[in-house]
Fold this protein.
Amino acid sequence: MVEILRRLGLGLLLICLSAAVLLYTDRGSRRSARNDRPKDRPLQIALVQHTSLQALDDGARGAVERLAELGFREGERIRISRFNAEGDLGTANTIARAVTGGDYDLIISISTPSLQTVANANRSGARTHHVFGVVTDPAGAGVGINPDNPSEHPRYMTGYGSMQPVDQTFALARRMNPSLKRVGLVWNAAEANSLAQTRVARKVTSDMGIELVEANAENTTAVMEAATSLFSRGIDALWISGDITVTSASDSLIAAAQRSGIPVFTSVPPRIQQGAVFDLGSDFLQVGRTIGDLSAEVLKGANPGDIPVKNFVPIRFLYNDLVLSGLRTPWIIPDDLKATAVGWISRTSTNLTALSLPTKKP
């Protein structure tokens, strides 16, 4: 009986070892599948974004447009599969596992959450080449990028960070209202991008003698409740950072602030149409075009591991002086600032057509 059990155990062990070898072999074949496919087959690209926001949409559109200009036209040399988690983390993780299985030649991710989910899945997946963008702080996203050495990152990924110009934003707000003392901020502590901006804002406001009054919102439903608590605490203005959760609810947030006579300024252009006094942030269409440049290099054979992660922030300024008359305290937009705007809403004219600044490739 003992001998039978011993032989049975040995057989089961051999079966398990054989299965493990087959799985490992299949993993290797999936990783090399790109090299075995017919050369005339269109390259397969997965375009992944976390939710439907104009900043993310602009980034994705810019990447696709630039790829087409460089000869990688959709339906010809490339085929693009688009994935959008619509803000749901479970869906985002499912998408990430699907696109890192070895069926794609390149993954382009738009937003910090998309970078994180794709990078985490790619560690145990096919390690597909991955280009990312519209990311506030890549090194702070926890995906293996060295903050002290931008050339040190996983060999299969590279991309661009676009940290919002927080210091310049508060400097402009102080110029428009020299008596500015208390600024409210609603943010989601679960977002690495939002945490990075909040940390910068805390230092900037402290140095300027401004109190940053914070309230947390873990989802879009909680944003208005958090904002209401800030309104009751006597803030002079409300700042909307690049927080995805809060930006998704920015229309109702700005409308509520207007009803209370509280000015809003943002780091996620364009929001002046909704009633923000000004926007100062990245032109994400230009960011997307730069992502397209980088993606084309990788598709042509460049090794992502040899390309350092850089910060690219093509800044644009937009203003709306129609909302100034309804504010609790006086705000003035100086003429020299108006002269730098690429978009505006004023009593004499409106220009919302200039959506991006001409910029040089970093």
